[in-house]
């Protein structure tokens, strides 16, 4: 069996879900032909399906070197690896390259938008979703994700229009149902927003939906219920900075300041420059009378945030207070 035959056998086994056997054939192929780009790519697929994301990324980088003609395909999967590893900037570079090489790749535009949104750049993500929608107007994810960006920019009415379009295409889209509910709440109807969210409950619960529900519960000053939803979401895998930062805000409102500091610090271990957590940590430290640490957190906040951030004025007032207490 030559290298190409081994690769084809490995791919057939992978299609059958026989990853270990597929890997044996691909290793055999690479032993015969170490620069076989397709073998490296297929091995990357096996690693990815096995949850070995970093190993998959290594394989895709090798494939990119030895099979440049298939760069768009390889970069797409490599971008997904970097995104899953939390390497947002490298993921963005991959997806930008995908759409440069293949401008008609709707999924490439969607994933580029997702990474930009995750990097806190929703205004840059919207044109990506617009490009995806032009190419695939019935793509539910593109519409729902566009709504998420508009919601992040506090353009709630326009966001609802996107969610409604997504729901026309798929009435069961949990992302769209949740987004619509949170926007309704932000527009001054939190009870109705909560009711809309509760209409799309599932068993087991959908973690992002629990996070959204906690946001509305916070608006309703039902902080203990909000914390319970966040804790459940984290147990189910929603271990991202927004969840921990929101938890910290609830704890502050409950007067549990040291516990709030821990939640904000946990958020920052997920994303060291997450602006809401930087401000939240500074405020909680101040309430704990830890002024030196509060000033340090505030200076980092002012390094990362800009004057458009809704916490900017409050952060300035907090800095003045901390300086007076020095």
UniProtKB/TrEMBL annotation:
Keywords: Repeat, TPR repeat, Transferase. TPR repeats lie at residues 3-36, 72-105, 106-139, 140-173, 241-274. The keyword Secreted does not apply. Pfam families: TPR_1, TPR_16. One of its GO terms (molecular function) is transferase activity. This is O-linked GlcNAc transferase. It comes from Blastopirellula marina DSM 3645. The lineage of its organism: Bacteria, Pseudomonadati, Planctomycetota, Planctomycetia, Pirellulales.
């Amino acid at each position: 069996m030559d290298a190409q035959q081994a690769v084809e056998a490995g791919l057939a086994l992978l299609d059958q879900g026989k990853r270990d056997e597929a890997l044996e054939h691909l290793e055999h192929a690479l032993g015969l032909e170490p620069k076989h780009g397709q073998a490296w790519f297929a091995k990357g697929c096996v690693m990815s399906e096995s949850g070995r994301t970093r190993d998959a990324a290594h394989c895709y980088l090798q494939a990119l070197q030895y099979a440049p003609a298939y760069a768009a395909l390889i970069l797409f999967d490599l971008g997904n690896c970097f995104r899953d590893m939390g390497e947002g900037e490298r993921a963005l570079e991959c997806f930008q390259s995908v759409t440069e090489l293949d401008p008609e790749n709707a999924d490439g535009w969607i994933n580029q938008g997702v990474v930009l949104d995750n990097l806190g750049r929703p205004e840059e993500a919207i044109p990506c979703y617009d490009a995806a929608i032009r190419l695939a107007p019935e793509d539910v994810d593109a519409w729902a994700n566009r709504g998420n960006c508009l919601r992040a920019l506090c353009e709630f009415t326009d966001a609802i229009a996107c969610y409604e379009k997504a729901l026309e295409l798929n009435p069961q889209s949990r992302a769209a149902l949740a987004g619509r509910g949170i926007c309704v709440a932000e527009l001054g109807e939190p009870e109705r927003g909560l009711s809309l969210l509760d209409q799309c409950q599932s068993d087991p619960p959908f973690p992002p939906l629990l996070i959204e529900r906690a946001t509305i519960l916070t608006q309703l000053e039902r902080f203990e219920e909000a914390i319970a939803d966040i804790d459940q979401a984290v147990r189910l895998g929603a271990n991202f900075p927004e969840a921990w930062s929101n938890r910290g805000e609830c704890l502050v409102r409950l007067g549990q300041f040291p516990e709030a500091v821990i939640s904000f610090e946990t958020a920052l271990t997920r994303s060291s420059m997450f602006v809401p957590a930087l401000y939240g940590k500074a405020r909680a430290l101040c309430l704990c009378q830890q002024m030196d640490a509060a000033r340090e957190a505030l200076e980092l906040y002012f390094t990362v945030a800009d004057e458009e951030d809704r916490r900017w004025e409050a952060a300035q007032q907090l800095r003045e207070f901390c300086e007076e207490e020095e």
